[in-house]
Specification:
Blueprint (H helix, E strand, L loop, with lengths): L1 H15 L21 E2 L3 E5 L11 E4 L5 E8 L7 E8 L10 E4 L9 E7 L24 E6 L3 E9 L4 E8 L4 E5 L8 E6 L9
Antiparallel strand pairs: 1-12, 2-4, 3-11, 4-10, 5-9, 5-12, 6-11, 7-8, 7-10
Bound molecules: 2-acetamido-2-deoxy-beta-D-glucopyranose (NAG) (2 copies).
The site of one 2-acetamido-2-deoxy-beta-D-glucopyranose (NAG) has 6 residues, from loops.
């Protein structure tokens, strides 16, 4: 009897502790990062239109015309001058095992499509912990790129170009019509912004 109640107690505790690994449907991720062939952001810095520095974060925060997020990618010298692409991978909730997100598209609900904008800062600049919306690095020469009809369950190849001489490649993600808050995570299915070196990359799975 004592043993039984102890077991019950242990089971009760086990149930109360959420498992960090949910059972995720990773059989068809929107995109699979090529092992050894990509960069994850080494620094993620949310900003908004105030002078408040939010510092680095594991979470990206985007809201219409106010919140945006800066991502610094460190391009090693060994990858200099290589063709690469910027991807945004956005699985559905049930495809995530260790991450999650909150999304509100332009129809004001969590399933509707929305718009994201990506713009690159001048190469070898990038955010620091003290960067605010008003102290962003200078923008690069390329016009901002708009990604239309963004919906969960998809991956987007936003830009293709050269990786530069080696150093910080920095991008800002923002939106005029949608809210996004997520934990950047490579664990299947990968969610977030990535620089993928071409040649090593497998074809995206749709
Ligand atoms: C910007 O973010 C800071 C820190 O979270 C917050 O205190 C401030 O109210 C925000 N400003 C705007 C304009 O959203
Ligand atoms: C969108 O959602 C917000 C927050 O729930 C609400 O205040 C607003 O009225 C909604 N707008 C539309 C157009 O439905």
């Amino acid at each position: 009897m004592k043993v039984l109640s102890l077991l019950t107690a242990i089971t009760g505790i086990a149930r109360a502790i959420p498992s960090p690994f949910k059972k995720a449907d990773t059989a068809s991720c929107p995109y699979y990062l090529p092992e050894g062939g990509y960069e994850f952001p080494h620094l993620i810095v949310p900003i908004n239109s105030s002078n408040v520095a939010m510092g680095h974060s594991y979470f990206a925060d985007i809201s219409p015309s106010n919140g945006a997020t800066i991502y610094n990618f460190d391009i090693p010298p060994s990858r200099a001058h290589q063709q690469c692409s910027l991807y945004f991978t956005f699985p559905r909730h049930n495809q995530l095992s260790t991450s999650d997100y909150q999304w509100t598209g332009n129809n004001n609900d969590s399933e509707s499509a929305g718009t994201l904008q990506a713009v690159q800062y001048q190469y070898a600049t990038g955010a620091t912990d003290s960067t605010t919306g008003n102290t962003q690095p200078a923008l690069g020469l390329d016009a901002p790129i708009t990604i239309n009809s963004v919906t969960p369950g998809n991956a987007y190849k936003i830009w293709t170009g050269l990786s530069g001489a080696g150093g910080v490649m920095s991008w800002r993600l923002s939106s005029t019509d949608s809210w996004l808050h997520y934990f950047q995570d490579w664990n299947l299915c990968a969610i977030g912004l990535w620089v993928v070196y071409e040649g090593a990359a497998p074809a995206p799975v749709s």
